[in-house]
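Work through what follows:
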Amino acid sequence: MATVGLLERLRRSLGIGLVLGHVDHGLRPESAQEATAVADLADQCGLAHLQTRLDLERGSGLPERAREARRKALLAQAESCGAAAIVLGHTATDQAESMLMHMVRGAGLDGIAGMASYEARASLSGRGPSVALLRPVLGLTRAQTRALVGLFELPFVDDPSNRDTKNFRVAVREQLFSTLSRFNPRVEQALCGAAEQARDAQDALSEWCDRELRGRHRRDETWDLRGFHSLPRAIRTRVLRSICLAEGADPAHLRYSVVVELTAAATAISAAYEGARRSPGGERPRTWDLRPRCCIRIDKNGLQRVSNVR
């Protein structure tokens, strides 16, 4: 609602058109009334509005399932009205919560990097133009956006599930933040700063990894491993994971421990290849069955996808 208030006041000076999109997950009895309140607000502001009703079932993985269904619904709304961007209201508090949750779950750099203020998303059909995801209030805390809503005199709703500490995110917010804020009252901003630095590092590593992939892909569809051992470990693991995914590996079979094994084998083969110029010998070939989609072999000729596993 704070984001709506900001954009409604800026739309004329920015020269943009606004459509208010709302997604009702259908999980609470009050949600239909809240959808009506959003429609009323759109009418008061003179904005067009779109609404989508979902029928999600409760059960395991509900937050993730709801997030994915909501994202698809918003993309569909954007396509239906020809919108170039979807503006989301994620705050610095959301960012800090997500970062800590990812860290507790053992996420890598991409998880620590959290959400970006700008992302490009492909259309649902894959044929239309991409849609930008914008998060203009990502630098403001939840308390600050609540204050903005008060200044704008806009209605808002507090989801009662946001008070249930059985929810991992709520427990982080209500229990962990309260402890951390004793040592740093600006803990949300501090965590967001760390996330931004992680995203910068992630972007740099991704760019380096892309260059390696382009340079190592041979015309015979194998992958050159010469000089691989001289790369930083962070690049080696990213390159190996990206190659396996490009060859059709199922991400579910590409656990971190498997990537570590692949990287160690490729590094040994690369080092042996360089040493073979001075003396014969090298590391033995190895094969990984990443079923159901592919089998990867690493030997002195590089990395390749093979048809079966012995």
